[in-house]
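Weekly puzzle thread! Below is a chain. First person to post its structure in token form gets bragging rights.
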Amino acid sequence: MSSEHLVGTSIPRFTFDTPTTPGNDFYALCAGTEPLCMIFLPGFDHPVTREYLTRYLKTLPRLRGVRLACVVRSAPRAVAEATQGKEFPFPIICDAPGVLYSYLGVEQARGLLSWSFSAQHIYKSARDAGYHYDRNAPQILPMTLIVGHEGKILFTHSGRSQTDLPEDCIAIRELAREVVHTKAADQRRASHHCSDETLTLPDLIGWDDVDNDQ
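Winning reply:
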């Protein structure tokens, strides 16, 4: 399902838990001069989630001009146990009930239609390594958002496959740069269309024309 209709709307203020800190303010996370990239992933133990979190960690020094937060369908305690309480260098928003996923319309994967060659490789590597995960957990198609001040959505992309998301922090940086440049260009075009003429109330409602007709 297309998610472009979300652009220009704002995510309501809410509090969220990370694996180590409960009750964080979402609008505080959005504050600042740099936009926030939010990437919605399956549960923390899912092979696709593990693969992309690893990529983001490895390329994090290349992330400039944008901040990153990843959302997972897992409870904070489960993630904390899996990571042995270690802090991530970017927020991991834990949404086990899927409240945010439902609000934004993040879709579940639909069988083979959601597969990609990259996903098949990730699953095969996980099996070969003897890695096990909850196969009954919701299989999520990823969603990527670029969010501004007070949760305003500047860009959204609903993944068509389980690996249709930014492949690393370099891709996130380039995506955010394009979104910011496009927004700035739109604002410049809008300002050029604004008239410098100051109208009076009679001008706006045509009273002068009415007087001339009488």
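Puzzle host: Confirmed. Bonus trivia for everyone else. The CA atoms of residues 55 and 168 lie 6 Å apart.
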